[in-house]
Write the structure tokens for this entry.
Amino acid sequence: MKQKTIIQVWGAQDGGKSGTIKILKEELIRFYINSSHTYSLPLPSGEISDVLMCNGFKIGVESMGDYLHLWNLHNRLNDYILQHNCDIIIYASRVYNDVSKHIAHLANIHNYRLLKVTNYRGDEPPFIQDELNQLSAQHLLNLVDQIITGKI
């Protein structure tokens, strides 16, 4: 049985959340949709908002998470549930903001599990944020796969 799940990638401003989610989208495509799909880092700038079909699961992917009422984010978050009926929604948010509160509300009224995660962060140098984001995305891909296969 599918357990609808929202994965909230949260953290401070400029912490690599959007970068991690953008890489995760590419990894979802490579792992579930097209095994010959390739990409190179850094990915193009800008935010992403997409719905993917992965092994029969509809996955909403949203990298914008700063302000609920800018760039139509409020409606997009609602649409992942109400219009697209996503099984898994992955989105970014700052630690405590209106986006975080809204998604908790949506999870509660629409019976989604809410899982809060963070990406890896480190000072540059010695760490390179794109490399940390790629590692974070790999771990999130594993988490999504665990959800899809019903292990968690």
Summary: The chain has four helices and five strands. The two ends are 11 Å apart (CA to CA). The beta strands are 5-11, 49-54, 57-62, 88-94, 113-117.
